[in-house]
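Listing S7. Sequence submitted for prediction.
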Amino acid sequence: MTPTPDTHPLKPVVCDAPPPVLVEALLLRHDPAEGFAYRRLLTALGGRDRPDDIARDLALLREDDERHLVHSTSWRATDEGQIVLTYLVHPDPVPDQPGTPLPDPGAIARSPRPGHPTPPDLKVHHVVAHAVRHLAFLARTDPAVAAHLASSNDSADASLGQLADVTAGQLHRA
């Protein structure tokens, strides 16, 4: 018996569910007077796509572009059941586009329950602050990132040094 479209074993499944994995690119910039700002770009990850490549595509970076840092900083689950893979891109390749100010890069979202790690009030600015603290950590521990920041026209390097005590993954008790 020849399969019909309704009985074919490889029939595409149509559902109204959101895509299961999203790639989020946070394009970071810094102004000495205004501080950090970012643009957030988000898209679904296709079946055979590589998240690193999708993050670069979102930022409009060519494959041979080595002037921009692209670094995976975190992942999280959404209330809709999606997984969001977050990448930081520095500096923002199109800095004249409107950005969202990040007034407190030291802001840390925490869960009050140790067995439930997701903070109940997690917002995008917390994710961006985490990414900035991650970059500050890498600036001190990864020679390639330190060299990138030193050669960048963006003024983030000095401000990242001020985040030394609140880096991603390193909390100090008073």
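Caption to Listing S7: primary sequence and predicted structure tokens for the chain studied. The radius of gyration is 19 Å. The mean pLDDT is 85.
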